[in-house]
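Here is a typical protein record:
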Amino acid sequence: MKMKKTVLMMLAVASLGFASCDNTKATAEAPTTDGDKEVLYSGILPSADAQGTVYTLKLEFDDDHNYTDGDYTLVENTLAADTVAASGLKEVATSYSKGDFRKESKVVDGTSVNYIRLTPDAKDALGTPSGSSLYFVINEDESLTMVGPDLEKSVNPELNYTLTVK
């Protein structure tokens, strides 16, 4: 129960980060005034050197390209163990990036895979973003799973790299 409260608090903090960067309100598949739509994804992904990283990803789909591309904003909040905090976790670093995304499709091992490629704009980044593209496979339930450029999911099923719609 404590972990759920912590996750909700961290999602709220990440959402505040969006509010300070953009005056539009992001909700799951919320239409904007010009026909575009926004979708907000979030989840705690594993991290090699931390307790995890809270990813909050806002996709702003453009209607003039049949909702296949647009702009994104990504906030990453790195978590560390904290014996003082009630949740046992604290945020130790935040990075932020913006850029363009595109929905694409590719055949992998004989199966068509739909995915989203994020391409960051270096001038719009804060923190320590990698500067290289990120890839997310689109799952049947519309969640996104972070993958590498080869579009292969993690070989370790115990590690969850999935972001869900909020």
In short: Residues 1-27 have pLDDT under 50 and may be disordered. The first helix runs from residue 2 to 21. Helices lie at 2-21. DSSP finds one helix and nine strands in the chain.
